[in-house]
Amino acid sequence: MANKILIRITTVPISLEKLLSGQLQFMSDYYKIVAIASEKENLENLGNKIGVDTFYLDLTRQITPIKDFLALIKLFFYFKKTKPFIVHTHTPKAGTIGMMAAKFAGVPNRLHTVAGLPLLEIEGKKRTLLDFVEKITYRCATHVYPNSKGLKDIIIQNKYCNSNKLKVIANGSSNGIDTHYFNPEIFTQQQTISLKNELGIMPNDFVFIFVGRLVKDKGINELVNAFQKLHNKYNAIKLLLVGDYEADLDPLFPETLEAIATNNAILSTGFQYDVRPYFAVSDALVFPTYREGFPNVVMQAGAMGLPSIVTNINGCNEIIIESENGKIIPVKNEKAIFDAMNSFIENDSMLEIMRQNTRKMIVSRYEQNVVWKAILEEYNSFNQNV
User: Fold this and answer.
1) Helices in 83-161 by DSSP H: which ranges?
2) pTM for the whole structure
3) Most exposed: 273, 275, 278, 378, by fewest CB within 10 Å?
């Protein structure tokens, strides 16, 4: 089995590095792994770091027909040459190009993981086009893995593919979570005090944290507005934003950007490779996203002992159980965000119960090795058909 080639494809290398952290190394004990993505230098650095072969493909996250066609042709010939046993894709563009090339090249096992559907927030002709492309991706795949039960239901409702192609592996999630790595006990009191001082967080501040891309679809406009109103009521609170902007793809409102720049209670750190220290100085996660697959951030926060405020969407409402390890609120609802954040500050006893539950609920359901072994078992099942 070790000589059989397993190819994993994402649009950008950071998805391989972060969303599938540790998984490629685990699978390399059983298959010959090739990682494919764009950003040649970053991809090669990742391959050297984790000890797997790489193949550069010029993919973009936007609609670029000529580049996409050239990538499809290049990948087709690569598959014909290497004859992989499994091609497994993640992210929309990588899924479409990867599944089409694998289908045309006769790859026997063509797997696509769905970890969110950005097209759900798009309307008009562009939505019609993206629906069509999504259906092509699933038609070319032999197996489609939504990483949450809610996402599976959405795929069926939108008639993207036959339900017999769909399967949620384990309890959901594309990668699970390393609860030894995401562990609040790693950080000493002195370390958290030092980071708080560096960020300008006072000892008595209640810190809400958001981790992810700072874009409209993540609910940042509503979150910032709600926080500003809450800050008018409570002085000793902070909002910690950990992530980068994407002005070219999904920009925030100008007034939101101005608030982030001028409100001293809103702390923006930019992208961070290690988010654990920022969870360690925080009291609760606020994640008011419009859409997700199965959000790693909510699992990470839970493993770090933080209760979460999340929107009532697939993935989020599977990780969070109302009033046990967090609160579930409506999507795109600024007042609901305000009310939930306010309740966290005012109700100490409720918050303490949630804190006691958060980590153990993540450990019991989403420990990384459980997810990896379930995916490996799925791969191994294809050997029975050879």
Assistant:
1) 92-105, 124-140, 149-157
2) 0.79
3) 273
The whole-angstrom distance between residue 63's C-alpha and the CA centroid of its chain comes to 21
pLDDT of the chain along its 386 residues, tens only? 457 999 999 999 999 998 899 999 999 999 999 999 999 999 999 999 999 999 999 999 888 899 999 999 999 999 999 999 999 999 889 999 999 999 999 999 999 999 878 777 778 988 888 889 999 999 999 999 999 888 899 899 999 998 999 999 988 888 999 999 999 999 999 999 999 999 999 999 999 999 999 999 999 999 999 999 999 999 999 999 999 998 887 899 999 999 999 999 999 999 999 999 999 999 999 999 998 878 899 999 999 999 999 999 988 999 999 999 999 999 999 999 999 999 999 999 999 999 999 999 999 999 999 899 999 999 999 987 65
Element spanning 365, H or E: helix 348-366
Output the six-digit token pair for 271. Answer: 């992208």
How many angstroms separate the CA atoms of 71 and 68, rounded? 5
The 8-class DSSP code of residue 186 comes to: G
Show the tokens assigned to 301: 């926060």
Task: Give the separation between CA 209 and CA 278, rounded to whole angstroms.
Answer: 8
Q: What is the separation of C-alpha 191 from the centre of its chain, rounded to a whole number of angstroms?
A: 27
- Token reading at 98: 């990867």
For residue 240, give the DSSP letter. Answer: E
The two three-digit tokens of residue 26, written as one number: 């685990």
Partners of 92 in beta bridges: none
State CA 340 to chain mean position distance. Answer: 23
* Residues in Cβ contact with 169 at an 8 Å cutoff, skipping those fewer than 6 apart: 145, 147, 371, 374, 375, 378
Cα 88–Cα 92–Cα 241 angle in degrees, nearest 5: 110
**d(C-alpha 175, C-alpha 147), whole Å:** 9
d(CA 24, CA 202): 41
Distance CA 158, CA 72 (A): 26
Query: How many angstroms separate the Cα of 91 from the Cα of each of 19, 116, 168, 231, 317?
Result: 10, 8, 16, 37, 21
Q: Which amino acid is it at 54?
A: T
